[in-house]
Design a protein that fits this description.
By secondary structure, the protein is of the alpha+beta class. The protein folds into three domains: 184 residues, Transferase(Phosphotransferase), domain 1, CATH 1.10.510.10; 253 residues, Bira Bifunctional Protein, Domain 2 (BirA Bifunctional Protein, domain 2); 104 residues, Anticodon-binding domain (Rossmann fold), CATH 3.40.50.800. The protein has 25 helices and 19 strands. The strands form five sheets. A seven-stranded mixed sheet has the order 8-14-13-12-9-11-10, with helices on both faces. A hairpin with a 4-residue loop joins strand 18 and strand 19. Helix 12 crosses helix 21. The protein starts with 9 loop residues before the first helix and ends in a 10-residue tail after the last helix. The relative contact order is 0.08. This is non-specific serine/threonine protein kinase. Keywords: ATP-binding, Kinase, Nucleotide-binding, Protein biosynthesis, Serine/threonine-protein kinase, Transferase. Its EC number is 2.7.11.1.
């Protein structure tokens, strides 16, 4: 903490001390004794906000724990005679050194006294620190000049360092009696609390008016402009783009649009911002702006850094898992135009599976978001990789500290370690290649309806991806949290992997995210319509990230795009879903716009109705007899009322020639 605390300031010293005391008051209220409060375990950021860390020696205030002696293994780094390394010795309360059978939170108050001295008496050298703290520890003596300058602080320090724990103040008592009048920052906190809790909106209006005071803003802008160095005549680095950058930018956007059109997508313009109010809210770090009228505006997700310039593709309706497979296919069709498929990892998860994992491990609902945040750093690492296993060492420590800070006295350390161990078991054993991880999860988790449904949908999704030859580097990652709160069913993330100079994989770069958002539609639909909402799934690609990491020479150009699309239909054979998927993928591969009805076994009537609704005139009809016996398909044009049977091998050639004349050349039907 004090490495960057060199310039002494009274207000800052009180501000930091108050936050430390507030932190102690909180952990003591949870029944926890820190027992190792030193500057090394106190951290503050650029805004001087304090965090207390390293709960490795912490204990619960439970009778059976208080009666236990201090584990000798836990005193690592403690110099009991003051002659070794200056570690926790100076901060250790007498009752801990003397191994009293029972200790309480007043042990932390003794340590706080030493911290308080270092806040009010910054040391210029390590030797000065050792001499002053040694005299205080062994003789109870403080520097005379310091006592004369700060008599009230010296009295408070001696009170906190009383040899009798019962004579020391508690953290709560310090907050009530030990501080001078509140500082400006604390007065502001009171104003903000009043704004939040009061029904009187005049205070909010006054604050907004002060923020947007033109005279104040003018002065601030003048000061900022004076501080910004002027660019030299040839220095345009902040806005300069090379011709190659511009070409690459245009190329990525053109290819994304072309792939979306191959999947028969319709362009939809969106409003790039919305008013934050009574509409459905989700916990995410979107950019928010305050208007001078006091309204808050949120920029849409695709405008958020670091994913400026997202490309979005959504499928409304259709069967679950099948439509997820198509949006992943569309995303991969774009990504693999710029990167080799072997360098891309697809991570899959399901909201119900994640809930089952939380319940199985015993993570409480109000702790899950924080645990998910700690685990999210694993998402960029390939499951089963040595890099992910190494990262678990850090994650275990962070999880242990978090659980110690929130668990109630009634909870045992055994339960705590059990939860951490189970999380690591899931992370190392059940995260992996899809066809290996799914059977393990089925065997380990309770076979309730929602868990079975989640695993079945993930299994179906993987099988559909396999039909489209997307089966390498597809992982089930059951600890991966969704990027959006409305992804309550299946969701996914696609990463770019690159080897470092040592041949091992580096952390992945996130290229695309997506998932099913029926939950969002259902919530928004209820207030507008009486009918049941359709299902929906979508993906968002980080186009700027693709631009930054790709090179032009990997690009494979498109042929001229036709405005007409083909509908691949089936007759009989139980829907022939895999055959329809394979055929439509062949057409996409040859840059022919094509789609199919995203249902398992649609009737021919349903497929004709789909063609009519989407203004599709040309059908490619496959049947179980035609595919298996003759290897042929039937082409039918609804508007021209013409049809022809062609072999699978000549299908794309026929369609390319026919679409060039909009199917109106009579010779193609002969």
């Amino acid at each position: 903490m004090f490495e960057s605390y060199s310039h002494f300031d009274k207000k800052l010293a009180w501000h930091l001390f108050r936050q430390i005391v507030e932190g102690l008051a909180h952990i003591h209220s949870q029944g926890i004794i820190h027992r190792d409060l030193t500057p090394n375990n106190i951290f503050f950021d650029a805004r001087n906000d304090i965090k207390i860390g390293d709960f490795g020696l912490a204990k619960f205030l439970k009778l059976e724990q208080l009666e236990q002696d201090l584990d000798p293994a836990e005193t690592t780094g403690v110099s009991v005679d003051g002659t070794g390394q200056i570690g926790t010795y100076f901060y250790t309360a007498p009752e801990i050194e003397q191994r009293w059978p029972k200790i309480n939170e007043k042990a932390d108050m003794y340590s706080l006294g030493i911290v308080f001295l270092e806040l009010w008496h910054p040391f210029s050298t390590g030797m000065e620190r050792h001499i002053v703290l040694s005299d205080l520890k062994k003789k109870g003596e403080l520097p005379l000049d310091w006592v004369e300058e700060f008599p009230e602080q010296a009295s408070l320090l001696r009170h906190m360092m009383s040899s009798s724990p019962s004579d020391r103040p508690s953290a709560t008592e310090l907050l009530q009696h030990a501080f001078p009048p509140r500082m400006e920052s604390e007065l502001l906190d009171n104003i903000l609390r009043t704004m939040h809790n009061s029904e009187d909106t005049s205070i909010y209006d006054k604050v907004v008016n002060a923020i947007f005071n033109e005279e104040t803003l003018s002065t601030k802008n003048h000061d900022n402009n004076a501080a910004v160095p002027k660019l030299g005549g040839n220095d345009t680095s902040s806005i300069h783009h090379t011709d190659l950058d511009t070409e690459m930018h245009d190329l990525v956007q053109e290819i994304s649009a072309a792939v979306f059109r191959l999947h028969c997508a319709k362009r939809l313009e969106i409003i790039p911002m919305r008013l934050v109010g009574d509409s459905l809210q989700f916990n995410r770090n979107a950019v928010k702006l305050l208007t001078n009228g006091g309204d808050m505006i949120e920029l849409c997700h695709e405008l958020r850094l670091p994913f400026i310039n997202w490309g979005d593709f959504d499928v409304i309706g259709g069967a679950s898992a099948l439509t997820e497979a198509e949006v992943i296919k569309a995303a991969m069709d774009i990504i693999t135009r710029f990167f080799h498929p072997e360098s891309c990892d697809i991570h899959l998860n399901h909201g119900d599976l994640l809930e089952a994992i939380w319940s199985w491990i015993g993570i409480k609902a109000d702790h899950r978001q924080k645990v998910a945040e700690l685990l999210s750093v694993l998402g960029s690492l390939r499951p089963q990789s040595s890099e992910r296993k190494t990262k678990w060492v850090v994650i275990r420590r962070q999880l242990r500290q978090f659980f110690l800070s929130v668990l109630r006295p009634s909870s045992s350390v055994v339960d705590l370690l059990g939860a951490v161990n189970k999380l690591q078991t899931v992370g190392l054993r059940f995260c992996g290649i899809a066809d290996q991880a799914l059977p393990r999860l089925r065997g380990a988790l309770p076979a309730d309806i929602l868990t079975r449904k989640a695993l079945d949908e993930l299994s179906q999704l993987f099988n559909y991806l396999r039909t489209w030859r997307i089966d390498k580097h597809v992982f089930i990652d059951p600890l991966m949290p969704p990027t959006e709160g409305y992804h309550r069913d299946s969701f996914f993330q696609i990463y770019l992997r690159k080897d470092n100079s040592l041949g091992s994989l580096t952390e992945g770069t996130l290229l695309a995210v997506g998932g099913r958002y029926d939950y969002l539609l259902h919530d928004m639909w209820q207030s507008e319509y009486k009918s049941n909402p359709p299902g929906a799934v979508g993906t968002s690609l980080a186009l700027e990230t693709i631009i930054q990491h790709s090179s032009v020479d990997i690009y494979r150009p498109f042929r001229n795009d036709s405005s007409r699309s083909i509908l691949v239909c089936s007759r009989g054979g139980g829907g022939l879903l895999e055959k329809r998927m394979e055929l439509v993928a062949e057409l996409w591969e040859d840059d022919i716009k094509a789609q199919y009805v995203p249902l398992l076994d649609p009737s021919l009537t349903e497929q004709y109705e789909y063609a009519n609704e989407h203004d599709i005139k040309c059908l490619v009809i496959i049947s179980d007899t035609g595919v298996s016996q003759k290897g042929s398909v039937k082409i039918r044009h609804l508007e021209l009322k013409r049809e022809k049977e062609v072999s699978r091998e000549s299908l794309t050639k026929f369609l390319s020639e026919a679409m060039a004349s909009q199917f109106r050349n009579p010779s193609i039907w002969n």
